[in-house]
Write a structure and sequence with these properties.
about 90 residues, three-stranded antiparallel sheet, 3 strands, disordered C terminus
């Protein structure tokens, strides 16, 4: 599956099952390779707490997965090994 097909699939699924703010989060992850939570909040015009809630719902639905990389939390939009998008949230713990 090519990258364009995978992105098209994610966009279609997002628009079918999620509200506008969730779609904006996924679209931002498709455009930017990495964003901290505060950067994403500024980009979307939201507060960080709202970004965490949106990403939490996407994580719960397995549109995003969390792993730790160099003291930062990273969210992935994973598509069965064909591509991935990352967004760094929070700081080290």
């Amino acid at each position: 599956m090519s990258l364009d097909v995978a992105k098209s699939l994610v966009k279609t699924v997002a628009r079918a099952f999620y509200d506008t703010r969730h779609i904006l989060v996924l679209d931002a992850l498709m455009v930017h390779n990495a964003l901290r939570d505060d950067e994403l909040a500024k980009l979307l015009g939201l507060v960080t707490k709202d970004v965490h809630k949106l990403c939490g719902k996407l994580k719960e639905d397995r549109m995003l997965a969390v792993y730790i990389r160099s003291f930062s939390y990273v969210l992935l939009c994973a598509r069965r090994g064909s591509w991935q998008l990352t967004m760094t949230i929070g700081g080290g713990r």
